[in-house]
Amino acid sequence: MKRKLALPIILLGISLVCCLAVVLALGDFYARIETSPQRETIGFDFSNQTPKEPQGGMAGAAHVFVHNYSMPSAGFITGVTYLNDRELDGPELPETITLLVLRPVVGGWEVVYRIALPRDDSVPTTTGVTTFDFPHPVPVQKGYVFAHWLEEAKGPIPMNIDADAVAGRSVGKFGFSSEDVEVGQIIKNEGFTGNRDYFLNVIFEFAP
Hints:
Blueprint: H1 2-34, E1 39-43, E2 63-67, E3 75-83, E4 98-105, E5 108-116, E6 129-140, E7 145-150, E8 159-161, E9 170-174, E10 186-188, E11 193-198, E12 200-206
Antiparallel strand pairs: 1-12, 2-7, 2-9, 3-6, 3-12, 4-5, 4-7, 5-10, 8-11, 9-11
């Protein structure tokens, strides 16, 4: 009789151990979900906003525009999101910008990343928001800011400028060649003017 009872007890014990292992595994799985990196957008909050300059910049060649919105902590920039521009007259033409990630230094910023974004309006688009995810996350530190450089005169990002600005935390300066915005170059914090809102954000994920 004892032998007959021993086998079910052993099987019950094995079953309880297996169930416990499953519970622990699931607990670890859900814990990893809860602690996965948070994601947010950094930049001017253009939700429910209508740009005063929906066609974007009209004379921005060789300009750098610095957006004074700091990364809240160490993490990664994984892409950008922006409002599609709308020409007030004429056809939608493809335009591009170069995104710069800047590290604050004494007297200015050091270019730590330079990313050419795809040309917009390859299929003409005048409404909605475009989101572009980078092929690889870009690591950043707390306090880094972002900027964009225009090689061409026309910029694709809608904006508010000067008296129409809501936050006014983006400033610009003329006179930057491609060589001036290579990685490692220092952009001096002098001569920047304007108070703009650019309808452009970077997508930020906190480091795990």
